[in-house]
Amino acid sequence: MSDRHDHVHEQEHGPAHGHAHGPAHDQARGHSHPRPQASPPSLSSRLRHRLTHLLTPHSHESADKLDSALESSARGMRALWVSLAVLGATALAQGVVVAVSGSVALLGDTVHNTADALTAVPLGIAFVLGRRAATRRFTYGYGRAEDVAGIAIVLTIAASAAFAGWVAIDRLLDPRPVAHLPAVAVAALAGFAGNEWVARYRIRVGRDIGSAALVADGLHARTDGFTSLAVLLGAGGSALGWQLADPVVGLAITAAIALVLRDAAREVFRRVMDAVDPALVDRAERALREVEGVRGVGELRLRWIGHRLRAEVAVVVDGETSVRQAHAVAVDAEHALLHAVPRLTAALVHADPAPAPGEADPHHPLAHHTPA
Question: Which of 273, 232, 261 is nearest to 160 (CA)?
Fold first, then answer.
């Protein structure tokens, strides 16, 4: 056997592997990331940041948030069923008020809440599928079912925006008084409170476990909460004698829903297209370059499979090392990645021998298979 070789090492890490580490572990390994000091932000920038934080999905990457795949799915399922119960109760209470008041605006809000509660169904199916083991047909498992559920949720948000706009325009063209305004106002406040609580809960859990679909579902609940506030403002305007208040505010809320739809669709589209935060790639490269025996980092790829990350990387090692030595370097490289990249559960490490002076590229026989 020649000393020059290629080596591939991969290992799936479940709960038993024990690679969940807290801040104390990171400090022990020297994983401190000091940040340069900056001047205090202005009032306008702080307000803009708060609005962006409220309306757009984003992730807070932190090594101490690393969960096992099983625990992440369990947390996602728990978030779905709790929010389903809260929104179901809210929609039921609002439906009673709709029956006695005849409020078209409150009817639209009730439909929104019902639709938001029902989005738990595709997400629940996705989480259940994601816990199934890989097969010879689905060799990467079923984690991408979450992305399919995310598409369904985005379509639901789009349908909600269309329905809200249609109801608002219909009421604008045909103004009608609203009966039992106090009851409508109370139902609107109940709808907002229920949706906002569910939105915060879903978004928090979705970010913790890395589920873009659950974050999008939380944003959908938040849009329904805004719709409830529109019903409240419309009721207030009607009480003051302005019948156009309800449809005007409804159109404004429709525009807000469209903005949230854009951000949610962008997040789900990026996940479907295997996009990752470039900072994660930089973090992985830095960790690999610190591994003893790694002379360079070649192709590095990260991809989300549900709410779990998978890595594929080629590292350059000494061309004169043995197979066992290269294997040890690959194991160390994988270990470093698991510590450095949050929610990474699998790494495929390929060891390339460093070519000697004048030696041909060891991958030259594959050149004709590489697209131009």
Answer: 261
Distance CA 91, CA 96 (A): 9
- Helix or strand or coil: residue 138? coil
Written as one string, the DSSP assignment of 34-46 is: -----PPPPHHHH
User: Cβ atoms within 10 A of the Cβ of 63, count?
Assistant: 21
Distance of CA 265 to the CA centre of its chain: 11
For 240, residues 6+ apart whose C-beta sits below 8 A from its C-beta are: none
Q: How many CB atoms lie within 10 A of CB 311?
A: 25
Nearest to 77 by CA among 132, 123, 146: 123
Phi, psi dihedral angles at 221 (to 5 degrees): -60, -35
Are the C-beta atoms of residues 214 and 76 closer than 8 Å to each other?
yes
Residues 178 and 250 sit within 8 Å (Cβ to Cβ):
no
Token pair for residue 174?
């045909």
Q: Which of 110, 86, 88 is nearest to 98 (CA)?
A: 110
Write the single-letter amino acid at 114: T
Contacts of 177 (CB under 8 A, 6+ apart): 238, 243
- Measured distance CA(82)–CA(88) in Å, rounded: 10
pLDDT in tens, 141-152: 888 888 888 888
pLDDT in tens, 75-88: 877 888 888 888 88
